[in-house]
From TrEMBL:
It holds the Pfam family Ribosomal_L44. It comes from Candidatus Nitrosotenuis uzonensis. InterPro entries: Ribosomal_eL44, Ribosomal_LSU_eL42, Ribosomal_zn-bd. Coiled coil: none annotated. Residues 47-57 have a biased composition (Basic and acidic residues). Belongs to the eukaryotic ribosomal protein eL42 family. This is Large ribosomal subunit protein eL42. The gene is rpl44e. Its cofactor is Zn(2+). One of its GO terms (cellular component) is ribonucleoprotein complex.
């Protein structure tokens, strides 16, 4: 049998504000942290229209459906925004099940 680990937590806590260097201001500022969310898909975009056209009529999918997805989690991207110059920076995230922003 296998032993169940009790200290394992699938979530990772990140503070809502991080003191970080801003390359635009050239100073250290307390930057606000938020999670990146994908925008709304535009149905009138050329790629979207082309894909819909290819799916029309007889036949199956344009691309074969994956039987088993390769990854079980997504990489979470963080957005850091400087309060002085209002510049936003994307920070490449790490692969996690869940990321939580907590007040520090």
């Amino acid at each position: 049998m296998f032993k169940l680990r009790t200290k394992f937590s699938p979530t990772m806590n990140i503070p809502k504000e991080i003191n970080r260097y801003c390359p635009k201001c050239k100073t250290h500022t307390l930057q606000k942290v938020s999670l990146y969310k994908a925008g709304k898909r535009r149905g009138s975009a050329i790629g979207e229209r082309r894909h819909e056209e290819d799916k029309k009529g007889y036949g199956g999918q344009k691309f074969p459906k994956l039987a088993k997805p390769a990854k079980t989690t997504k990489k979470q991207t963080l957005i850091l925004s400087c309060p002085q110059c209002k510049k936003k920076f994307n920070k490449k995230g790490i692969r996690l099940r869940k990321l939580e922003l907590v007040a520090a």
